[in-house]
Amino acid sequence: MIEPPLPASPGVPPPREAAVDACLPVSARTGRFLVLLGVFICAACGLVYELELVALGSYLIGDSVTQASVVLSVMVFAMGIGSLAAKRLRCRAAAGFGMIEAVLALVGGGSAMALYAGFVWGGEARALLVTFSLAIGILIGAEVPLLMTLIQRIRRQDAGGAVADLFAADYVGALVGGLAFPFLLLPLFGQLTGALLTGAVNAVAGGALVLWLFRRDLTRRSRRLLLFVNLAVLALLAAAAVLVDDFERAARRAVYGSDVRVAVQTDVQEVVLTGPATGPLNLFLDGRLRVSGRDEHRYHEALVQPAMAGAHGRVLVLGGGDGLALREVLRHSGVRRVDVVELDPQVVELARRDPALVALNRRAFEDGRVRVVQADAFQWLRGARTDAYDVVISDLPDPGITASTKLYSQEFFGLAGQVLAPGGRLAVHAGSVSTRPRAFWTVDASVRAAGLATVPYSAGGRLAGFAAGPDRGSAAPVPRDWGFVLAGRSRPGLALDPSYRYRSLSEGVLRAGARAAERTRVVVGPSTLVHPRF
């Protein structure tokens, strides 16, 4: 986005070069249109850079609210610095603008790769995020005083009219860039290639505007220098685009190890599956370990089985696209129907087709009692029939992940309680008890605030840091347990089906887990949509 230039003081003449009309290869009307078109394109590219930093910062560091606030505030501050610094370039507005756009194309286009490389190999992304936000903001802020000078050279008009024209083109360009990022660039090209493509468009637009439209304002040396710089920037961006696949593979090996079998960016998240096709697997969602084949049974038994100790003919699973909670549900012969509400259909498809994951979930999605719905769990519950389910299993990401905050709110648990039949039970994965007790007890408080009675408990024996952890910004140690909340309209008993054979669970283990959880109790309030506490 651009900063308005400072108004000229009364009686102070404009710079000498602004008083001379530019000698253009086209009419003044066409030239003015081309300058505004350049503003439009550069504004679109600038907003894409901004959104790219927010998205990648949220993915690499976590806590999307904090990362968005950092990027936006630093960039707006830097734009003001850029606007002030650009005043010294107005005597050479065309050459200055051309050089700024070339540098912006290189810095903005390469920012995603640099940020990702810093995170993967340097272990640091915050400093780079601030650095790129500052650099891009300064370059974007420097555009406006120079564009103001250029457009005044084409046709003299009052400052207010010129600013209005520039702002109109800028804001419309920002709209296009803001919509193109999530709906075009990300799904078609991904974060890295999308940023490189945006940089190339930026370089071509800025270079063409200056080298063709204002070429007579440039000395021969300036034209050659700008042409060389723009060609060099385009060559660097093109080389990076050619190597981006190798770069991504090397980065994944550095993050996940050498045995990555599946790596796909869905419309919802990055999904990575590692491990041999016939051995223990690891499933990562957005870089967080979600499933480890070595210890997942401990988690899924503890989540599902206490809720199944009673009527369980109709079961709802929220999340659980890997099919592992579904596997535990289907082991009970009394189950007549299971509805699975999963946001990402490609995770379900992977659970249906990947040999190792299929073996782990025991082909759960092939069972005729299962119906899969692609939907956001919160929105789906708003339209669900009341008193419809004997058991509801909430197998959703950790409450410490910003994107999951609404799925651990009082409002969400109120909707989940409405679909419970009389005597029904709700089981909620609530994060680690030992390392994040405040978040765990906030989940419990939120469930109670929704009108349900709760029994909190934990399960130990975690081997591989399994399940989605909190945002990467968290300084909490690697968790070694899982926390759960069992709830109902009346206080449910913490029991197990005696006819079922368990791999790692017993009523004694459950009671010990309840005592262990109780020892960590802290007094906290519920989390709501308007007052999130995670």
Automatic annotation (TrEMBL):
The chain crosses the membrane at residues 34-61, 67-86, 98-121, 127-151, 163-186, 192-213, 225-244. S-methyl-5'-thioadenosine binds at residues 269, 342, 376-377. Its EC number is 2.5.1.16. The keyword Heme does not apply. Its main location: membrane. CDD domains: AdoMet_MTases. It is a multi-pass membrane protein. GO terms for molecular function: spermidine synthase activity. Pfam families: Spermine_synth. The keyword Oxidoreductase does not apply. Spermidine binds at residues 300, 322. Gene3D superfamilies: Vaccinia Virus protein VP39. Pathway: Amine and polyamine biosynthesis; spermidine biosynthesis; spermidine from putrescine: step 1/1. It is found in: Cell membrane. The active site is at 395 (proton acceptor). It comes from the Bacteria. It is an enzyme of class 2 (transferase). Keywords: Cell membrane, Membrane, Polyamine biosynthesis, Spermidine biosynthesis, Transferase, Transmembrane, Transmembrane helix. Catalyzes the irreversible transfer of a propylamine group from the amino donor S-adenosylmethioninamine (decarboxy-AdoMet) to putrescine (1,4-diaminobutane) to yield spermidine. NCBIfam families: MFS_SpdSyn, PRK03612.1. Homodimer or homotetramer. Belongs to the spermidine/spermine synthase family. This is Polyamine aminopropyltransferase. It comes from Streptomyces polyasparticus.
